[in-house]
């Protein structure tokens, strides 16, 4: 497509644009949205990599800001055509207080919605999560489910509760009149566990394996399957939704879409080994599964230690009763809703996604944990 000033007229805002997913969304927009005139990247912590993007044809505006501050959000949103709201506090490890998680995930999302209404921005894409659905506190499996599969979505943990509340707010806002009299069009994307370049938890597992002499110990039975999705495909879905919302407002407005691709269904650990294996780690003899009661004991002990040590230091290991429950419950998605509604096809094959992630883990090798 011609790269003329006439074709470039849209202003996009990406909140959380310097996070794991946000950075991929930002880069994907620059590659795949030829109508882009200005790209605003809003984050609490701006990445130095943004500088290198400022030399291209699109005006990249870095905005250091906090979604919990309504005036900062309103200033960033004013004049934007589309907002992609990925900013969030992703914490299932007890690093932040429940109040802070709600403040960022729920109040932050309210602020984004109100800013759209006040300033006349019509298109809002929200990054929700599979956790809005499950796994639930009863540990019910969600097997090859889609957006319409009945499931008891009951949660206690602040992260899924906050994402569920925020998603509801976004969907309820669909159709609200914005400044200027037109209607707001919103929708929510629900990624399953995202992986790929920049995935902090993968990095943590890798360093843990190195510390254990190149070994990881299987904790979860291989039969417990999870859906995972490559970050590049999640970013691509966000860009496609943003591009299609105007033309297909009646169909897509107020809808939710799981994020999916061709990544295989596997247990969380077996899936991670697809990348960590080629980087020299091995999962110790599959017959020597750590017994579940022992894991539960360790997880509970970790939670207790976290509570006891809180006045002195932050102790937030990967294993706690909540992460154990999530890891130990099947949650797999099988749907084609995104394809039917806006023509989504994964941009990256499983082989591409795997190769890119392995290359990234190999580059992480030697870097500080
Ligand atoms: N990582 C996953 O597996 C996964 C899966 C499903 C959904 N999600 C959702 O995707 C989104 C992005 O997650 P991620 O994995 O990239 O996390 P991340 O922590 O890497 O990115 C979140 C970004 O939001 C920013 N942020 C946090 N608080 C902010 C605030 N108050 N104001 C402005 N910016 C703030 C952070 O600085 C960070 O750059 C989140 O909304 C998360 O709930 C993530
Ligand atoms: C029992 C441990 C022994 O190896 C393994 C613990 C693994 C857990 C740390 C992760 C298992 C499942 C992950 C979650 C899932 O992939 C989906 C998510 C949704 C998203 O919105 C945020 C991240 C996460 C909650 C993700 C977090 C890490 C796990 C609990």
Automatic annotation (TrEMBL):
Any one Gene Ontology cellular component term annotated for this protein: endoplasmic reticulum membrane
Gene Ontology terms for molecular function: cholest-5-ene-3-beta,7-alpha-diol 3-beta-dehydrogenase activity
CDD domains: 3b-HSD_HSDB1_like_SDR_e (cd09811)
Membrane topology field: Multi-pass membrane protein
UniProt catalytic activity: 7alpha-hydroxycholesterol + NAD(+) = 7alpha-hydroxycholest-4-en-3-one + NADH + H(+); 7alpha,25-dihydroxycholesterol + NAD(+) = 7alpha,25-dihydroxy-4-cholesten-3-one + NADH + H(+); (25R)-cholest-5-en-3beta,7alpha,26-triol + NAD(+) = (25R)-7alpha,26-dihydroxycholest-4-en-3-one + NADH + H(+); (24S)-7alpha-dihydroxycholesterol + NAD(+) = (24S)-7alpha,24-dihydroxycholest-4-en-3-one + NADH + H(+)
Record's function text: The 3-beta-HSD enzymatic system plays a crucial role in the biosynthesis of all classes of hormonal steroids. HSD VII is active against four 7-alpha-hydroxylated sterols. Does not metabolize several different C(19/21) steroids as substrates. Involved in bile acid synthesis. Plays a key role in cell positioning and movement in lymphoid tissues by mediating degradation of 7-alpha,25-dihydroxycholesterol (7-alpha,25-OHC): 7-alpha,25-OHC acts as a ligand for the G protein-coupled receptor GPR183/EBI2, a chemotactic receptor for a number of lymphoid cells.
Protein name stated in the entry: 3 beta-hydroxysteroid dehydrogenase type 7
Organism: Panthera leo (Lion)
